[in-house]
Amino acid sequence: MIYFGKGESIRGPDSEWEDELDELDDFGDDTDASLTDPDMAMSLSDADSDVEMRGGGKEYTTAEEAAALAYGDEEDYKMHPAILRANKQIYSEASSLLCTEGIIVLEAGDVFCLAKAPLDTFGASYHGAWRHNPLHGLGKEVNGVVTYGTAAMDGKMDPHVFARFQKVYFDANFNAEHTQHYQLWIDDDTHVVKREDAELFVDTLRRSTVMTDFVELISKSPCIMNLEVVLEVEMMVNSNLMMEEMSNDDDDDETEEKLDRLMDVADEKASELFLDSGICECLKQLSNVQTIHFKLGFEDRTDEDVYTPLPKHVAWIEELKRTVEGNFRASIV
Fold first, then answer.
1. Using one digit for the tens of pLDDT, what is the confidence trace for 260-270?
2. Which of 66, 243, 287, 306 lies in disulfide reach of 5, CB 3.0 to 4.6 Å?
3. Which residue has the higher pLDDT, 25 or 243?
4. Span of 27-31, 165-169, 253-257 with lowest mean pLDDT
5. pLDDT tens, 291-310?
6. Is the domain of 63 the same as that of 208?
7. Between residues 90 and 184, the one the model is more confident about
8. In terms of domains, do 182 and 283 share one?
9. What is the rounded average pLDDT of the residues 88-111?
């Protein structure tokens, strides 16, 4: 799904906003439904006070805070998108602020659904995001109304509206829904991954277009002030210890701890393979992103199994940042 920062996620058709919005008069066809739809838009009616009281003086809520809040205390960050339809002046002023200060969050399934030739064994499409495929263009504007010559999709976001947002958070969590056809056999003691499993997954990644589609999507925006990409790949794991545990009815705390750690290791190894495959190299082509932040999603674990990225991946992330931000500086000279 696509959802906005400030902690407000997409709501279903039974949203309490429906009745509120129905009471307002429609003030013209030039209003973007992606911003005024109660399931997709957020109001800035209390944005300044939220930032002042809860943001520690920051000018905007960071993407990581927004993603966490989307699943957290929604009532404290409740939005009222109906204000955008009060009149044209409020719509013009508030929607502009929304697109520059709000953070729009993409999930992996929002990108998989755009693929021209999706893989059968990798990726799951979410169909609630887009009204039209943004890879086919941003539509044509005539007299303030944007129309598309492509087939309609089942979602709520118009591509030309998405392209206005200047802060994007890509929750690149390739969970079990996306990787269900793969597993990693891992040695219980050395945590070395079986070569055949690693090669199979890497080969699949090299055939996937998910990251090139993401780059093409982002490249259609005139300017992205801040892009955050948080990568985490979840993978099924198998090992001798796990096979033994399946046939053993006795509960052993030490064994359970080892198995829990093994599942964490599988996710770490899968994420490392994701980077090693070169699938993310296309991110370096971005030239419209002013600031980029890339990290692995389990770097911030609070328990004793804190993950430290491999030196080669730390170097790659630093190179990615230099390249993308250098591309932006070169594009405005």
1. 889 999 999 99
2. 66
3. 243
4. 27-31
5. 999 999 987 777 667 888 99
6. no
7. 184
8. yes
9. 82
- Name the nearest CA neighbour of 152 among 33, 35, 39: 33
Shared-domain flag, residues 92 and 192: no
pLDDT tens-digit readout, 213-238: 999 999 999 999 999 999 999 999 99
Q: Is residue 258 part of a domain?
A: yes
Both structure tokens of 64: 């990581």
Give the structural domain span for 231: 104-131+158-333
